[in-house]
Design goal:
- By secondary structure, the protein is α+β, with helices and mostly antiparallel strands.
- A hairpin with a 5-residue loop joins strand 20 and strand 21.
- Helix 4 packs antiparallel against helix 5, helix 5 packs antiparallel against helix 6 and helix 8 runs parallel beside helix 10.
- 26% of the residues lie in helices and 32% in strands.
- It has ten helices and 28 strands.
- It starts with 22 loop residues before the first helix and ends with a helix.
- It is elongated and about 95 Å long.
- The strands form seven sheets. It has a four-stranded antiparallel beta sheet with strand order 1-28-27-26, with no helix packed on it. A four-stranded antiparallel beta sheet has the order 2-3-4-5, with no helix packed on it. A four-stranded antiparallel beta sheet has the order 6-7-8-9, with no helix packed on it.
Length: 512
């Protein structure tokens, strides 16, 4: 039989699941090479310096560590605290740092010298919220006594005491668009919008859950809050009305942050996941999974670092490899295409010169000359051509990692009535790969019909010889266990289907 007359084994093609990688997934997958460092206790807060080189401050235990954003190593340690410290936050110019303590004390530090510039002791309960207002000359603090205090940094005096919360104040955010507006959230389920020139809240809304994190949008016209497993977006211009609500986490959301471009929102949760939302649609575009519950999340203003703090004290620092954001990728490609202009003719002797014209489609008035190329056969095809069925099956199992190729060869052997010949007369060493392949793939719905028949044929052939080889006996036991496990799954699925059918039938007969 000539090679041209032989028909190669047709590798089966099954419908593929639609899993197209979006630009957002490609972008966020570039945050790789996570550097894990260990703090002494849970990492409760992370804040990036707004100015270059964008170092970040980590609040944990009784100290604040300032990390180098490039090397992810500690540059400075501020340990002038007697109790646990919280909410270490930079001022807009990056020169000052404010932090609260378990004792209620609030301290302002010079980042360059680590000296204490201001110290406030008005709070009598743990102070877990400290933020500078956008003006830089004022800061606010919130404590477990339910009181929010406004401080004047140049004079060191308290400007006002803001009362309105009835439970622990645990989060706050200052507006970037206004030097006077800021928002606080508490465990009394309320979120209050404040104006530093007034002693009463401008707006107060009920979130429905203890509020763990709150964040102003860059425009200043809206803010987002997290409580329970829900994240809600509030429009200030509409009287702090909820314009969108998300509940994509399974457990309490503990932290919120924006990316450097303010186009993506990130949320960290006790379910060990960090989710990324597109703020135009509020759909989840990517997710990160961590080993421990997440307490704090931050992205650098340069969009090149993702830092996550966990309850175990682990601090994960991911570095983004080179690449544009999803929004900038298309624009960059268009600019490069315009810059290149029309492509030049390939220079003689280059690779492009020798492959030129291969992708060109013939015109209507052109005749395409087809050249018959010699078929390149796989080893199992060559053996099947010589009717060596056993050797062809061994070659397919040994040389091909894709299960679909082995299944295609088995199907070809079944059509030729050569499957029994290919499986019979095997010793311990030649039977072992076949049984391993069956154990691994027999439960796959795409191959199950054929492979179950192959397994039955092997059992009929080699059942009388069981007990002669411990290796073969063990493989048969694994095959049996795999089939029993699959049967148990099927039974549970049938039970679930019956329950769903009952629920759907009841809902269809019940009047609305």
């Amino acid at each position: 039989m000539a090679a041209a007359d032989y028909k190669k084994v047709a590798v089966k093609r099954f419908p593929q699941l639609l899993q197209r990688e979006t630009p957002d997934e490609r972008y966020w997958k570039r945050f790789t090479n996570a550097v894990i460092s260990k703090e002494h206790s849970a990492v409760t807060h992370i804040d990036f310096c707004p100015t270059h080189p964008h170092d970040f401050a980590v609040s944990s235990s009784t100290r604040v560590r300032l990390y180098n954003a490039t090397t992810a190593k500690v540059r400075k340690t501020i340990s002038k605290f007697k109790t646990a410290t919280y909410s270490a936050s930079y001022r807009q110019d990056g020169k000052l740092l404010v932090a609260g303590e378990e004792s209620g004390r609030v301290q302002v530090f010079d980042v360059a010298t680590k000296n204490i510039l201001r110290q406030y002791d008005a709070h009598k309960r743990p102070c877990k919220v400290t933020k500078f207002l956008h003006s830089g000359s004022e800061l606010f603090s919130g404590a477990d006594d339910g009181v929010v205090r406004l401080w004047d940094v140049p004079t060191g005096q308290e400007k006002s005491t803001l009362r309105g919360h009835e439970d622990y104040v645990r989060c706050g955010s200052a507006s970037v668009a206004s030097p006077h507006l800021f928002v606080t959230g508490a465990y009394d389920h309320t979120i209050k919008l404040w104006d530093s020139r007034m002693e009463e809240p401008v707006h107060s809304v009920n979130h429905g859950f203890p509020v763990e994190s709150v964040l102003f949008f860059a425009s200043g016209g809206a803010f987002v809050a997290a409580g329970g497993n829900q994240v809600k977006v509030y429009d200030i211009m509409r009287g702090c009305r909820v314009i969108h609500a998300m509940s994509n986490h399974q457990k309490t959301v503990t932290s919120l942050c924006f990316d450097g471009r303010q186009t993506r929102l990130l949320s960290g949760s006790l379910d060990r996941q960090v989710k990324v939302y597109d703020i135009t649609t509020y759909n989840v575009v990517h997710s990160f999974k961590y080993t421990d519950p997440v307490l704090s999340v931050a992205v650098s203003p340069a969009d090149d670092r993702l830092v996550v703090g966990m309850t175990s004290g682990a601090l994960s620092v991911r570095r983004r490899t080179k690449g544009l954001s999803p929004a900038g990728a298309t624009q960059k490609q268009q600019q490069q295409q315009r810059r290149r202009g029309p492509r030049k003719a390939p220079r003689a002797g280059t690779y492009r010169f020798f492959i030129r014209g291969q992708s060109r489609k013939p015109g209507e008035d052109e005749f395409l000359v087809s050249v018959a190329r010699k078929k390149k056969l796989q080893m199992y095809d060559k053996l099947l051509k010589k009717f060596k069925y056993r050797e062809a099956l061994d070659s397919a199992v040994a040389d091909h990692k894709r299960a679909v190729v082995v299944v295609s060869v088995l199907h070809e052997l079944a059509q030729r009535n050569g499957l029994k010949q290919a499986l019979s007369g095997r010793d311990e060493h030649s039977l072992q790969p076949i049984l391993q392949f069956l154990t691994k793939n027999v439960a796959n719905p795409r191959y199950a019909t054929l492979l179950i028949g192959v397994a039955n044929m092997i059992l009929d052939m080699y059942a009388p010889g069981l007990g002669q080889s411990s290796v073969i006996d063990e493989l048969f036991v694994k095959l049996r266990d795999r089939l029993q496990e699959e049967l148990q799954y099927q039974e549970k699925l049938f039970e679930l289907q019956g329950c769903l059918d009952t629920v759907l039938a009841c809902s269809a007969t019940t009047p609305s």
